[in-house]
Amino acid sequence: MPDVRFTTLLPLLTAVLGLTFLVHETAAQGDVIIGCPTYGCTPSGTFSSVLGNFPQGNVTVRWTSQVSQAPLPGSPLGCVGNDVNIVCPAIRLKGTGYVSVNPINGSIQWTDELLRFPPLPIMNIGGDIIACDGNSLVYYFNSGKMNGKAITMEPSERPVYSLTMANNNLFFIISRQSGRLITYTTDGIPMGSIYINDKINSQTGAFVPIAQPVIAGHRVYILMEFKVNNGGTQPSAPILRLYAVDLRDIMVQIIKVIWIYNFTSEVETPRSFLGDIGGYLPNDDPSGPRLMVYRHYVYLVIPAETNDVASSGTNGVKNRLLVFHDNGTSGTLKYTQDLDVVRMAAEESLNTAVPKPHHPPQNQGQRSQINRASDNLRAIFGQEVYDIPERFMGLAKPVARGPVRLRRDSTLRFHPSAHQQRIKESNPEVQAIWLATRSGGLYRMKYDDGDILTTLQLSKALNVSSFNMTSELMIISSQDGNAQGPVLVFAGIAETATSAAKNGDVPSMSIFYNYMYVVDIKGSVKLALPVPMNGTVQGQIMGIPTDDDPSRQSDLLVAYSRVSEGNQLFAYGYHKTK
Question: Out of the domains of life, which is the source (predicted)?
């Protein structure tokens, strides 16, 4: 990789502010999440966030925006965004890169014509993004202006999974085609790259990823499959491994494999997943393999063969959940769940401290952007030193003028706030994982031992004949004092049946409509919102804060849907006109 850097040190702010998770060292604040700035809204893929003024009551469509002029192929991941900027992969007349949307009114702000079918980028608190399609690595300001020149990756690693960030100022790229693991600093300096090669049964090859990697601290977890080199014979049974790899900001062994879990009798996969990596856009099966990490536990959903035909998916294939515990130097399989899981999310313990959104002016120079971000950090906390959770960035210290300085610390600690401690003491079951199954079940599971705490059948809870979840399962905590979080937010296709005429002349009919639902953890439906143009919602649903008077306007729920003309973005919220 050529040593080509972004032209300013502004990307250092991504390490400090990039995923907007900041923890006050004196236990006065908890995790603060603004919007959904990366795949899964967190590097650990928990699909969880917090809003200060959750939409409730008279919620309506605030705006719609056609972001893609043709439907994206595969299963789109949705968008990333915050109160400053929303960025979505899109197909436009001038390119197949990103489109930027104003979160206030849904207007198109700018389009990217360089990247080709990129996955999700990472976004900082100012709405800037770092993005990669496997061929080019680029930093865009929230105005759409490129920071310096794009970095050309040689050789091309297209396609790649969505970018994600470690807590030591490194972000991570992995090639779906070659399996190459690559790290850069946020100022565009290439740090290291490796391939994971091996020889198995006299066949040489490399392990390549088959699911979106997730990160806790500076440790990345990757599900990989053995791919025989050209000319070799691929094994009849796929060979899978779970890798735990540290991304280290040192001079040697920057990327180091810490432990490997070889799958043997735990799961018999029905097929190879190598065919899913073809083309430029990740054609992810939403019910295929997926990873999440939460409190030193790694959750893996993987299709497996089963004899339980009644509860299986197509052709006797049923997903299984395998849960591993990472003790630092090795990973052990703690328990399994024989549920046909297709989506999962984690409850985060969050307190009531939510920063007010800010809307920085666009097309500003480097110094004003740095000062603005530094001022915003001081305005949010008003203190000098902040810990960032160990699963995220380094330590940040705001200064009166100039950029936020990054202080390296190899012994990062997570200091739970007093509020978090009270939650744990009063309700130990708050640390839970939610699982959505193919058959429409929702399960709240204790994270460390797999005990099922709550079981919901969506068709019954939603009062419909059947329900097919098409979006990700999101958990959003509401901290406005009126609505208690967390709540589950998801969308899908609801089937309702009409009654047949009494004389039997008119047969019963089924009506299918796309809805977004907000459901509390007890199963009570808080909101049932029809999707504009009956579009099918795909990918992650974002909670976007606003800076308006909470009595006049709520925060927004923003989602990405497929319609006949392409893909649209839409926002739900409460707005009082008088």
Answer: Eukaryota
Q: How far is 396 from 409, CA to CA, in rounded Å?
A: 10
3-state secondary structure of 420: helix
Token pair 């984690």 in the structure block, residue = 346
Q: Give ∠ CA 427-433-435 in degrees, rounded to 5.
A: 135
Nearest Cα neighbor of 139 from 153, 124, 154, 125 is 124
More confident residue, 209 or 378: 209
294: left (phi over 0), alpha (psi -120 to 50) or beta: beta
Distance between CA atoms of residues 332 and 80, nearest Å: 33
- Under 8 Å between Cβ of 163 and 171: yes
Backbone angles phi, psi at 134, to 5 degrees: 95, -20
DSSP codes, 200-245: ETTEEEEEEE-S--EEETTEEEEEEEEEEPTTS---SS--EEEEEE
Domain ranges of the chain: 12-351+420-574
Non-local CB neighbours of 554 within 8 Å, separated by 6+ positions? 53, 54, 55, 56, 59, 546, 573, 574, 575
Q: Residue 319's beta-bridge partner residues?
A: 303
What are the tens digits of pLDDT across the range 504-535? 566 668 899 999 999 998 999 999 999 999 99
Nearest to 406 by CA among 380, 370, 372, 381: 370
Phi-psi region of 359 (alpha: psi -120 to 50; beta: other; left: phi over 0): beta
Token duo for residue 416? 């739970």
* Cβ-contact 312, 324 below 8 angstroms: no
Fold of 12-351+420-574: Methylamine Dehydrogenase; Chain H (2.130.10)
The one-character DSSP state at 366 is H
The verdict on pTM exceeding 0.85 is: no
CA distance 531 to 567: 13
CA distance 177 to 275: 10
State the Cα–Cα distance between residues 200 and 224, nearest whole angstrom: 14
